[in-house]
Design goal:
Blueprint: H1 13-37, H2 43-47, H3 49-59, E1 74-77, H4 83-93, H5 99-103, H6 133-152, E2 162-166, H7 168-172, H8 174-186, E3 191-197, E4 200-201, E5 204-205, H9 214-221, E6 224-229, H10 233-244, E7 250-255, H11 278-288, H12 299-329, H13 331-342, H14 349-355, H15 364-378, E8 382-386, H16 390-393, E9 412-414, H17 419-432, E10 436-442, H18 446-459, E11 464-468, H19 486-491, E12 497-499, H20 504-514, E13 521-524, E14 546-549, E15 555-562, H21 566-579, E16 584-588, H22 592-596, H23 600-607, E17 609-616, H24 625-628, E18 633-635, H25 646-652, H26 657-668
Parallel strand pairs: 1-2, 2-3, 3-7, 6-7, 8-9, 8-10, 10-11, 11-13, 12-13, 15-16, 15-17, 17-18
Antiparallel strand pairs: 4-5, 14-16
Helix pairs in contact: 1-3, 1-4, 1-11, 3-4, 3-10, 6-8, 6-13, 6-17, 8-17, 12-13, 14-20, 15-20, 17-18, 21-26
Length: 669
Amino acid sequence: MTSSSVEMVMLDSKIKAELERIANTVRGLSIDAIEAAGCGHPGLPMGCAEIGAYLFRIGLRYNPAQPRWMNRDAFVLSAGHGSMLHYSLLHLSGYDVSLDDLKQFRKLHSPTAGHPEFGEVDGVETTTGPLGQGIAAGIGLALGQKIASARTGAQSILDSKVVILAGDGCMMEGVSQEASSFAGHLKLNNVILFYDSNDICLDGPLDECMSENTALRYEAYGWFVQVVDGHNVDEIHAAYQKASTATRPSLIVAKTVIGKGSPNMAGTSSVHGKALGAEEVTATKSVLGLPDTPFYVDEEVRMSFEHRQRELADMHALWEQDFEKWQSENEQGAALLAQLLAQSLPTDFDSKLKALSLKAGAATRQTSHQVLQYLHDAVPHLIGGSADLSCSDSTLMAASACVKPGEFNARNIKYGVREFAMAAVATGVCLQGMARPFCGTFLTFSDYMRNAIRLAALMQVPIIFQFTHDSILLGEDGPTHQPVEHLASLRAMPNLTVIRPADGTEVKGAWAHAMRSPVPVALILSRQGLPELDGTDFDGVAKGGYIVKGEPNSDVDVCILATGSELSLAVDVADELGKQGIGVRVVSMVSFELFNDQSPEYRASVLGAARVFVSIEAQSTFGWHQYIGVDGLAIGVDRFGLSAPISDLQTEFGFNKDAIVSQIRAKLG
């Protein structure tokens, strides 16, 4: 394939001249900001300047005065290291990014961080930087819009696109391949992906590590593929127009020169990830026809974007008229759309959830499944999905269909065996603003998802991750599927709330908290059946830890802390010790994060005083000593599991009443 595969649609000579000035202004601003910072990545902003100029001056539909307009085209810079391209264009196009912000690039507390960060700058749709995830999140933004418009019947007024710019590194990362395969399967025709194909990566020429035909790979995914000269705005325009009317997702392979304009560094890896240096900056500006003035903006460029802002404001005003007309003619759809945007809960949400009857003795994955059926009816903005495991992790909402190619009026998503993409796509669905998504898999496979979970936590995007098969006690599948270190790993992550409920009451409380949480939540659920316990408390879950057996602020011989499936074991141990005249308090430590958020007085009343503090959890003991002290007794699993029936594993690893009573008595002396 060559650029001749694109039917030429010539732009007016005047607009082409404007685009050239915009592109060179972007190059100048980018190299100046990177030079001022003393570090950065000038190669992409210089190499993709024509693509960026075209998108923000002609291609994209947006309104800087109302940056969260629901029908805006979203731009996602997956290759986030090239952030100065994005910041320069946001500044020029009228967003709230000042010239001083550009001068403070990469400085402490500056909104123009080294990589684009969601919530810091209007116009940045998602945090990017870990390569490939921007592609997946962008696909999630597009999927979220498709689902919302189909459910509300608003296809005529919710018809925006998601435009993604990615580089070679994004294409090499596996998450982009998972997500692109998923998008091709669903025929997401509101996705346009520009591939900055410059044959250079950070370490040197691309052919030293990558030799595939990316265009053919994307054709195999089911994408519409075009190849263009990434510096020819006529070809970019023609390809973009075709992509905008395609019936499937589009890939535009843009052949570019990294660092274009630099006389001594263009086309080399040297320009990828470090400042040009003062002499090369001066030489580059001479080549580009720019004055050697830091942060120079051509007045004609200012005027060009002022004209564009007026066009966009008029476009937005016409859309608002169409939207009002649609609302008046589609009362039911408009009401649902308002609900999806507000994402509020019914006033009787908690009372009905508390009253929900659950199956006795069920695994917490099963009681969670029952709760999900209530949530489906009570919470229209809830959307779920699973990595080919809905029949096992119990995530399917039975009253809804599954999203299919061309059929988006559904609330279940089958992500296939694509855990990393699932988490990153769900992040995009959440960022789109009309859904609170949850996604499910086995806890041990959270490892596949970890960096996407981390980005969601960094952005404080309130996704719900449902992880089942939560300990070695899942049994015969063995150590490859038995999580050991996973709870400690997730608990170590800032802005992530981890909740491991012990029975149906706590499952209901966990979902109640998750539906209100301002940060992502990980629900940790069992495969094996668990008894419904006396003393567990729906409202106690939100406090993270509370007393199940015993009195607050009391002195006891033993204080036992446990979570999930081990809470019932802790109660059995306490009952046995009580028979032996030993005073015991049992605490459900359902969430470390929520408990640590409570007042010191509350925490002290729950933990109280004891001769011996004990933790019981069929996971790594890492982290428990913050509660039980350095001399506390931590009963857990600090080695990999074994393949065996659950009863044999309980005996092997000491998770039975007699073994634990014996350890506690020995500790008491």
